[in-house]
Specification:
five-stranded mixed β-sheet, single chain, elongated, mainly beta
């Protein structure tokens, strides 16, 4: 009889979760199908979107992760057992705005498809994407005639507001909206206070520059 010992490298409880910083990478091992790991990170005071990358490295198996705001499940994902040898498979499933100065938790579980002597290694990294334009009328970006304003929509929940003030002359105005460099759908609407003047959509077209 041989007894093998495998240290539990990351805590099984949220109270003792492994803390890591946004922009850095944390790693651990899932020893078997009953092992769970908890990790935690805290957002800064900025108005930002966050993306979480979870990767399974070098072992066949299944990795399951969940992202929590306290007890509320925000997102979950799975990475299935087609990672072989020195390979790496990652999944970015959370890309949304999180509250400033708040702590979030990530729960990781799964199993190795080989045996318990080959634990499943994983890495977790949190990336921050600044919300570059205001998402309300009170924080709208002011436009100027003949001057382009460039922004980024981080996900389907992101909206951006702009304002434009005419110069008082008896003039016509035109507006150009363009999607640049990425496939997707862009929706815009032009208002005079509550009245909708114009709206449009730009579908899946890619502009190189």
């Amino acid at each position: 009889i041989v007894v093998n010992q495998y240290p539990d490298d990351v805590s099984d409880s949220a109270e003792d979760a492994l803390m890591f910083q946004v922009g850095t990478e944390a790693s651990g091992y899932i020893q078997n199908e009953i092992d769970v790991d908890f990790l935690t990170f805290t957002t800064d005071q900025s108005d930002s979107f966050y993306g979480i990358e979870v990767a399974a490295i070098g072992t066949e198996g299944r990795l399951i992760y969940e992202v929590y705001d306290n007890s509320e499940l925000l997102e979950s994902g799975r990475i299935y057992d087609d990672v072989i040898g020195g390979g790496r498979k990652s999944d970015v499933d959370l890309h949304k705005k999180l509250q400033p100065n708040k702590t979030y938790y990530i729960r990781v579980a799964g199993y190795s498809a080989i045996n318990n002597q080959n634990p499943l290694k994983y890495t977790v990294k949190v990336k921050k994407y600044q919300d570059d334009k205001g998402d309300s009328l009170s924080s709208a970006t002011a436009l100027k005639t003949d001057v382009s304003s460039v922004g980024n929509l981080n996900n389907k929940e992101d909206v951006e507001y702009f304002t434009y003030t005419t110069d008082g002359s008896d003039s016509f105005y035109s507006m150009e909206v363009a999607a640049i460099g990425t496939e997707g759908r862009l929706i815009y609407a032009v208002y005079d206070n509550p009245e909708l003047l114009e709206s449009g959509r730009i579908y899946d077209s890619v502009v190189d520059h």
